[in-house]
Amino acid sequence: xxxxxxxxxxxxxxxxxxxxxxxxxxxxxxxxxxxxxxxxxxxxxxxxxxxxxxxxxxxxxxxxxxxxxxxxxxxxxxxxxxxxxxxxxxxxxxxxxxxxxxxxxxxxxxxxxxxxxxxxxxxxxxxxxxxxxxxxxxxxxxxxxxxxxxxxxxxxxxxxxxxxxxxxxxxxxxxxxxxxxxxxxxxxxxxxxxxxxxxxxxxxxxxxxxxxxxxxxxxxxxxxxxxxxxxxxxxxxxxxxxxxxxxxxxxxxxxxxxxxxxxx
Length: 264
Prior knowledge:
By secondary structure, this protein is an alpha/beta fold. It contains 10 helices and 12 strands. Strand 11 (205-208), helix 8 and strand 12 (228-231) form a beta-alpha-beta unit. Helix 1 (32-42) packs parallel to helix 2 (63-70), helix 6 (160-170) runs parallel beside helix 7 (191-200) and helix 8 (214-222) packs across helix 10. The relative contact order is 0.16.
């Protein structure tokens, strides 16, 4: 049975890791390079680095910060934010990233997914999907948002489930599903959203947005059918350690990669 992955997320703004609530009111959470090294040593399975304002500000990702972060980790690193071309992806991969995440650019130019998959393989192409629940919808529906680093972003005019399926058909090898309703609230993931995309998509799904306790991560895997769980606040501010979360999940029967003695 494949192990479930625990992935800390580094949301980077102006060269610092930040964390907000529903993409707003960011507070400083530390240096990305130092945090990357810490999580690698602590036993994280992967790491995600997002330059959260690059797309909204219409600029390129901070290559030097990515390169210095990659130098500190020996686990898979996904990098996203402001990637608009295959050459942008190539630069990130050369800088040390193992995967690249595209969000706004993929919506505006879906061919970027297939071009990236052709150039580097689907395993390198991650779709970042920011989803906002449609109020009062029954059954529930979610819409895709883009440029979410600025004032909540813009409505992309796409259904989140339909977009997830189309992106995988174009060549995306993984989807990070971020609930904008739950992001930073620490009240739990949107389980209905994650389950809907996990059941519809043919690739691994990473749940994001809302982690507050180890039980929330378990629920995302068990009820939300996620293949991996991404979290920020509970790790950045020392509420829980990677080892604690893995011990909890393993105790509830979730297969996880054990933390070695020198990592704990």
